[in-house]
């Protein structure tokens, strides 16, 4: 029987037209030939494949092995010579990858969880709450231990989080924005009680109850951290200030009708849009959502590497603004760790920032980004894509797409089902669940 998967119970938060991004030095274009259609120009990622064609699968697998080999050689040379790895990797798409230095590359495993990526992306600096957050996130690794032995490690994580909360509560409370302090304190009290409940779960040796409780507690932590953000932290450049801007975060549910799948009829994907780090990109998208631009639109690309949509019918490859009768475009927007304002209109490679780390990396399965023209960084409009992989060869903020495309959100629920979507599946609706008050200059209201 076909299943209908919904995300509504969750309580909290590629290029254009499938536009072509072709390599300019290393010629892998023959791998994307089967993906191209005469009516649309496709985003041609490094490891794309068509599962329905065995010959393509063979080529893609060979290509993936080659990529890993090249990356390994580059990193080895980096370790020996001290040169940044990006100098040894030819551009996979439109430009050279923005890689951090080797000390970052070997510092630890990548952060793949979308919730964790969103928490670390918040514009806050409060060590005390991070010291509560970290051991709670470490429970995920503890649960990889077989059987009940995992609970011994979970207990250590729980006690560390409880101790950090007790010792750092005063600092945490002092970091709350005045206008949100009462709500933040309420969440802290729930977090404290929940840690006691988690400790009891461990003592009862109830392994199955650990993960749901961990998720609940991390939602409280994320809420507390959001309550530390006092207003919007910077001024968007003047040339973009009149565009729809998401000054904060918003959550949307995307309901997709799945065709020709006996196990799945429809699925609701919950997506958190991050306007703190991509206000123009996220604002543009949620404005289109409120216009019902995507409702009834088909999935236009699904090749095992990305799922993509947003190319309207007709000759236009983006959203035509009725007020101007022209395609509304937005600039490339990349927030870098250590910067207070995003970079606009240029890739990190264009800027020479080879070691820069993006605040919203392509690390999680279901990372959401804006598609654009290959050689025009300011050509994003309505086409978006979701990445169907996790970072494997590089740590957080060092994915081959980082710094070239504007990430503005993550699928936080049912992301695994993105891999089941096919070309022709229909987006029945995208609805705003929360955060619409953070949208300024909404053009959909003007349009009526």
Major beta sheet summary: 9 strands, mixed
**Topology pattern, helix = H, strand = E:** EHHHHHHHEEEHEEEEEEEEEEEH
Oligomer: single chain
**Shape estimate:** globular
Number of helices: 9
Say how many strands there are: 15
Rg over CA atoms, rounded to whole Å, is 22 Å
Contiguous low-pLDDT stretches (5 residues minimum) are: 1-15, 17-65, 67-107
Q: How far from one another are the termini?
A: 42 Å
Average pLDDT across residues? Answer: 81
The secondary-structure class comes to alpha+beta
What level of helicity do the residues show? 25-40%
Strand content: 5-15%
Throw out a few tags for this protein.
two-stranded antiparallel ribbon; 9-stranded mixed sheet; alpha+beta; 9 helices; globular; single chain; 15 strands; 448 residues; disordered N terminus
What do you see in this structure?
With 448 residues, the chain is of the alpha+beta class. 31% of the residues lie in helices and 15% in strands. Strands 1, 3, 4, 5, 6, 11, 12, 13 and 14 form a 9-stranded mixed beta sheet that branches. A two-stranded antiparallel sheet has the order 2-15. A two-stranded antiparallel sheet has the order 7-8. A hairpin with a 6-residue loop joins strand 3 and strand 4. The radius of gyration is 22 Å and the shape is globular. Mean pLDDT is 81; it is low at 1-15, 17-65 and 67-107.
């Amino acid at each position: 029987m076909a299943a209908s998967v919904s995300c509504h119970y969750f309580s909290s938060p590629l290029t254009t037209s499938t536009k072509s991004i072709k390599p300019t030095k290393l010629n892998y274009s023959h791998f994307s030939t089967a993906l191209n259609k005469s009516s649309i120009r496709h985003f041609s990622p490094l490891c794309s494949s068509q599962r329905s064609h065995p010959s393509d699968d063979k080529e893609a697998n060979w290509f993936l092995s080659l990529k890993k080999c090249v990356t390994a050689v580059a990193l080895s040379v980096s370790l020996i010579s001290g040169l940044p790895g990006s100098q040894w990797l030819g551009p996979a798409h439109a430009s050279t990858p923005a890689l951090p230095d080797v000390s970052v590359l070997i510092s630890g495993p990548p952060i793949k969880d979308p919730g964790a990526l969103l928490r670390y992306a918040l514009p806050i600096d409060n060590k005390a709450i991070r010291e509560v957050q970290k051991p709670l996130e470490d429970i995920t690794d503890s649960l990889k231990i077989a059987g009940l032995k995992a609970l011994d490690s979970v207990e250590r994580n729980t006690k560390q989080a409880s101790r950090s909360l007790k010792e750092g509560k005063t600092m945490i409370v002092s970091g709350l924005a005045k206008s949100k302090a009462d709500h933040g304190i309420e969440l802290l009290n729930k977090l404290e009680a929940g840690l006691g409940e988690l400790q009891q779960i461990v003592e009862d040796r109830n392994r199955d109850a650990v993960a749901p409780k961990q998720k609940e507690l991390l939602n409280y932590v994320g809420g507390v951290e959001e309550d530390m953000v006092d207003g919007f932290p910077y001024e968007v450049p003047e040339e973009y200030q009149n565009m729809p801007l998401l000054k904060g975060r918003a959550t949307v549910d995307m309901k997709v009708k799945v065709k020709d799948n006996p196990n799945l009829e429809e699925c609701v994907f919950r997506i958190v849009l991050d306007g703190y780090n991509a206000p123009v990109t996220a604002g543009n998208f949620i404005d289109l959502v409120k216009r019902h631009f995507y409702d009834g639109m088909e999935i236009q690309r699904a090749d095992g590497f990305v799922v993509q949509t947003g190319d309207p019918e007709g000759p236009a490859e983006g959203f035509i603004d009725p007020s101007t009768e022209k395609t509304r475009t937005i600039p490339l927007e990349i927030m870098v760790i250590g910067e207070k304002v995003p970079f606009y209109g240029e890739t990190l490679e264009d800027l020479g920032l080879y070691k820069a780390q993006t605040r919203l990396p392509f690390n999680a399965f279901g990372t959401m980004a804006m598609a654009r023209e290959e050689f025009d960084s300011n050509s994003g409009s309505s086409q978006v894509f979701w990445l169907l992989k996790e970072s494997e060869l590089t740590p957080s903020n060092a994915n081959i797409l980082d710094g070239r495309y504007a990430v503005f959100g993550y699928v936080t629920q049912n992301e695994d089902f993105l891999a089941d979507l096919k070309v022709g599946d229909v987006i029945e609706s995208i609805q705003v669940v929360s955060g619409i008050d953070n949208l300024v200059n909404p053009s959909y209201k003007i349009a009526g």
